[in-house]
């Protein structure tokens, strides 16, 4: 089962298939790094998947509405950035962006795409492969300056100890800076274990076989691309400690416990449907570091 931190901030796992006993000793960070450090073909397929691109664009656009972004002054970290699908949406709105991830495999694709940007944008973006642990010297590895905005798009459910990670991220914010998180709402439909076949993961991650929004295209090519990135159930259990999403109350407690104020959360910003009539609902939440 999941660890104590998991049950503190998200609803209990209810798969009904059994978990194989992941307890306190299971290293979710190492399991995620191993899974996402796959072949270049994996990260390239992920990064070019039209369903993922469409979903991440919508989520990142909603995140941009949560706080003032200034292209002349905002220093930003995109935490758990993966291949940079969300990062590239944020980039025109900030002065500089550091993409952070524990998977060098995903960051290799991040860097490849960054090199293809226009010269002006290319100088504004870089990646750092690091696991944020709150240890001495991390800020220097990230450039030596704290950030005005830190985002995490559809990846927080991969973090085992969320209270600690939230505190670590807040420590890297300037006073008055914002932490903006998009993830899965606990109001989503019950997951059965169909979910294990389609976690098709964006890191900046969505979970979708089929986009519910009316303006989304759902042709066979998109569905075929998603199918190439399926995650087997046993792997899903190894890399996702928070499998039932987060409530507004839990997110507020998590943010305030890390010293954030002015909590705001917009629910149901996006609905995404899997095969098997399994649906998730995405939210975006924001907190500000006290002055």
TrEMBL record:
The keyword Signal does not apply. The lineage of its organism: Eukaryota, Fungi, Dikarya, Basidiomycota, Agaricomycotina. Keywords: Methyltransferase, Transferase. Residues 195-217 have a biased composition (Basic and acidic residues). GO terms for biological process: methylation. This is S-adenosyl-L-methionine-dependent methyltransferase. The keyword Transferase applies. GO terms for molecular function: methyltransferase activity. It holds the Pfam family Methyltransf_12. InterPro entries: Methyltransf_12, SAM-dependent_MTases_sf. Residues 77-179 form the Methyltransferase type domain. Residues 1-26, 188-228 are annotated as: Disordered.
């Amino acid at each position: 089962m999941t660890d104590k931190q998991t049950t503190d901030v998200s609803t209990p796992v209810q798969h009904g298939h059994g978990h194989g006993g992941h307890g306190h000793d299971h290293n979710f960070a190492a399991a995620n790094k191993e899974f996402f450090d796959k072949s270049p073909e994996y990260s390239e397929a992920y990064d070019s998947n039209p369903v993922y691109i469409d979903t991440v664009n919508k989520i990142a656009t909603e995140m941009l509405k949560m706080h003032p972004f200034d292209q002349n002054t905002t220093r930003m970290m995109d935490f758990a950035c993966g291949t940079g699908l969300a990062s590239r949406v944020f980039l025109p709105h900030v002065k500089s962006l550091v993409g952070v991830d524990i998977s060098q495999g995903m960051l290799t694709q991040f860097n490849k795409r960054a090199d293809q940007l226009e010269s002006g944008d290319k100088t504004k973006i870089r990646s750092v492969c690091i696991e944020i642990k709150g240890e001495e010297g991390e800020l220097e590895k990230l450039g030596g300056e704290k950030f005005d905005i830190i985002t995490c798009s559809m990846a927080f459910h991969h973090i085992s100890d969320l209270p600690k990670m939230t505190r670590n991220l807040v420590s890297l914010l300037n006073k008055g800076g914002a932490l903006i998180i998009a993830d899965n709402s606990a109001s989503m439909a019950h997951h059965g274990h169909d979910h294990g076949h389609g976690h098709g993961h964006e890191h900046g991650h969505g979970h979708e076989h089929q986009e519910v929004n009316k303006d989304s295209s759902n042709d066979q090519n998109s569905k075929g691309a998603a199918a190439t990135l399926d995650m087997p159930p046993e792997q899903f259990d190894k890399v996702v400690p928070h499998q039932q999403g987060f409530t507004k109350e839990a997110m507020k407690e998590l943010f305030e416990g890390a010293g954030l104020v002015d909590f705001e959360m917009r629910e149901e910003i996006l609905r995404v449907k899997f095969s098997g009539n399994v649906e998730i609902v995405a939210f975006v939440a924001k907190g500000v570091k006290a002055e």
